[in-house]
UniProtKB/TrEMBL annotation:
It is found in: Cytoplasm. Coiled coil: none annotated. This is Aspartate--tRNA ligase. GO terms for molecular function: aspartate-tRNA ligase activity; ATP binding; RNA binding. Pfam families: tRNA-synt_2, tRNA_anti-codon. Residues 137-440 form the Aminoacyl-transfer RNA synthetases class-II family profile domain. Catalyzes the attachment of L-aspartate to tRNA(Asp) in a two-step reaction: L-aspartate is first activated by ATP to form Asp-AMP and then transferred to the acceptor end of tRNA(Asp). Belongs to the class-II aminoacyl-tRNA synthetase family. Type 2 subfamily. The lineage of its organism: Bacteria, Bacillati, Actinomycetota, Actinomycetes, Kitasatosporales. L-aspartate binds at residues 170, 214, 366, 370. ATP binds at residues 214-216, 363, 411-414. GO terms for cellular component: aminoacyl-tRNA synthetase multienzyme complex; cytosol.
Amino acid sequence: MIHTTSRVLVSDLREHLGQTVSVSGWVNTLRLQSRMQFVVVRDHTGMVQVTHKRSGEGDEVEAALEQLTSESAVRITGRVVENPIVKLGGLELVPESVEILNRAETPLPIDEHTGLEHRLDWRFLDVRRRPQAQLLFAVQTTFEQGMREYAYAQGCTEMHTPKLMGTASESGAEVFELGYFDRSAYLAQSPQFFKQMAIAAGIDRVFEIGPVFRAEPSFTSRHATEFTGVDVELAWINDVEDVMAFEERMLTHAITKVAEVHGDAIRETFGVEVVVPTTPFPRITMAEAQKVLRAKGWDPEGIKEDVDPEGERGIASYVKEETGHEWVFITHYPTSIRPFYHMRPADNPGLTLSFDLLWKGLEVTTGAQREHRYDVLLKQAAEKGMSTEPMQDYLNCFRYGCPPHGGLGMGLGRVLMVLLGLDSLREATFLFRGPNRLTP
């Protein structure tokens, strides 16, 4: 079929008043009355009402509209007419031809009352039917664009590191093992070692947005077995403060962009005000954080050197009260709960030059200055009882002039969750992967 009229998006219809245009989209709702037929058609930019007066036998438009079902894909060609009574932008489309591109089966498997888990089974319909979900991915795109803009302006090179590894990374825990020809391979739980190899390769500042895999049997609202990580590694740093400063500026730049482009839509759709943070973000050491929490009666069993999610929320509310800030870096984690490659301060080897970044009480980032001296790395690995043999390729990077460096890993979904006030990471991910979900 030859189309003389090219597609016009619903959001652009006002520019075509009085003209004949084609609108392509999905049937949102139908009201087929005895004299009139009303169909609301939705595309990714909005909705328009199609209004047709029945004229009886031989009316092809009437017959086609009669066959429509909710969520059918259609192309409707008609005249754009102003009608102030119509709630959808005061416009309607008077159809001249109706093409059913793909008629949706009925009834639909989900509706507006369907629970989250069942909606995830039909995620394509769920995203298509809900403006919140459409907006989420637009916000994600703008947020990533903002981070990339900042990273590029700071001289970062965007890298793509392997997701298949010959040995289990870091501690060997929480990795997925898979068959690889005649041997085993593992899915990368972090691009950490590869980022550091890029630093050793003379690439000054490294940036990556890519998949991360964690074999954690966690069923919380903030865990996933596959998620999108935002990773940065910076060479020739003076100390870990350089890494924190880079991150807070990158986030501020990206959130400013989101506020400019989507602030009104986010307020309208999610009821959330996008607040651009001021820099620097507050910092508190782990020791101070524990002191503050214990003074407030926080005393979970078995937690001596870390804070649990309840503690993280407690610290966030304390910092908000003290400073008015929604973000806080917790710094100087004990060596016992940090990887062997985190640098330790010379005057206090029981601590690491590391941090977590919390936003409204949710941990969104982990970062640190890395240990770049080969002999120290070997010593720290031995202290943790680790065999260095499987890591020899990684350790070789530090034998031939590796500069001081540090970096961070951020969970993109967690940031979107807090940004839009969502209850679960499942909502902030297109196709969620968890211990009980490998489909669709």
